[in-house]
Write a structure and sequence with these properties.
With 319 residues, the chain is α/β, with parallel strands linked by helices. The chain contains 12 helices and 8 strands. Helix 5 runs parallel beside helix 6 and helix 6 runs parallel beside helix 7. The two termini are 34 Å apart.
Length: 319
């Protein structure tokens, strides 16, 4: 299974021959980029997709391809979700719970990257609050809808290597703020959340994994200047192993492939509680000079428990 797909595999290649009829799947961030492509390929293979987005008008325009490609009973329903507002997150979760239909997969895809310093509606640092805390509340509030055999897939990033979480100062009250430092914290949190969610739910047959989609040119990079982007690529190339190819952008279907691979194709026991990249489970790499792999702190189970407790304290809710 691990060697069947790789960095250039696309969503449709991963799902070739797979019938998702009758499966119900939630995808956050279904208004652009990876979220739209993830929803499209799932619906094209028969899934009933619930796409969550902050701007529903934008999402309707962006998901015309989803409806056009839907087959075998595949369909798309859009719901409103602003991850930077816990009121919106809770309202979305309440509506999904009231509806009562279970989910086979939840793909926490939405996010922001390298934003200027700011705060969410609840006063959290923008990237940590949006990328982690918003999904933390949403997923935990709808966890009862995840039936045995279902999976959670958290979109993380190789950017988790920029920084571990800081549980003493999650909102940069005393720590100097950097755009990528904050992004790294939020992406590490995405992995740690998957680790602890998996531990808590695997006895009930519900598993969780985190994935790195790769470098893709989408709206996610809207805050990066050309100079910052070029410097980032230069640093990535400098960190490659001998013999490894230089950095290359993935297409959007290639970028979304690892999400659907971890959600649908990979055996649950092979990806549960782990971090995946290029359609395989990533190796643990403790060398900050090397590209690829996952840092040990992002998979540390005690660290994951501590983040869970801190997150509950921050949002004022126990799960």
């Amino acid at each position: 299974m691990t060697g069947q797909f790789g960095a250039t595999s696309t969503t449709d290649e991963v799902l070739e021959g797979v019938d998702l009829s009758g499966k119900r799947i939630l995808v956050t961030g279904a208004s652009a980029g990876l979220g739209v492509e993830t929803a499209r390929t799932l619906a094209a293979h028969g899934a009933r997709v619930v796409g969550a987005a902050r701007d529903l008008d934008k999402a309707r325009r962006a998901t015309e391809t989803v409806l056009a490609d839907a087959a075998n009973g595949g369909e798309l329903e859009l719901v409103q979700l602003d991850l930077a507002s816990l009121a919106s997150v809770r309202a979305c979760a309440d509506a999904l719970n009231a509806d009562g239909r279970p989910f086979d997969v939840v793909i926490a895809n939405a996010g922001v990257m390298a934003t200027p310093k700011g705060q969410t509606a609840d006063g959290f640092e923008t990237q940590f609050g949006t990328n982690h805390l918003g999904h933390f509340v949403l997923v935990n509030r709808i966890a009862a809808l995840m039936k045995p055999g279902s999976r959670l897939v958290n979109l993380s990033s190789a950017g988790h290597r920029f920084s571990d979480v800081n549980l003493e100062d999650p909102n940069f009250a005393t720590t100097p703020y950097t755009e990528f430092g904050a992004y790294g914290r939020s992406k590490t949190a995405n992995i740690l959340f998957a680790v602890e969610f998996d531990r808590r739910h695997k006895a009930q047959g519900v598993r969780a994994a985190a994935v790195h989609p790769g470098g893709i040119q989408t709206e996610l990079g809207r805050y990066m200047t050309d100079e910052v982007r070029d410097a980032l690529i230069s640093n990535i190339n400098a960190a490659r192993k001998p013999g490894d190819p230089e950095f290359a952008w993935k297409t959007i279907p290639q970028g979304a492939a690892t999400s659907v691979w971890a959600a649908i194709k990979a055996p649950a026991d092979e990806v549960g509680g782990l971090y995946c990249e290029d359609c395989h489970v990533a190796e643990i790499v403790d060398n900050a000079e090397l590209r690829g792999g996952v840092r040990p702190y992002a998979l540390d189970p005690e660290h994951a428990k501590a983040l869970w407790a801190k997150s509950e304290a921050m949002v004022g809710e126990r799960f």
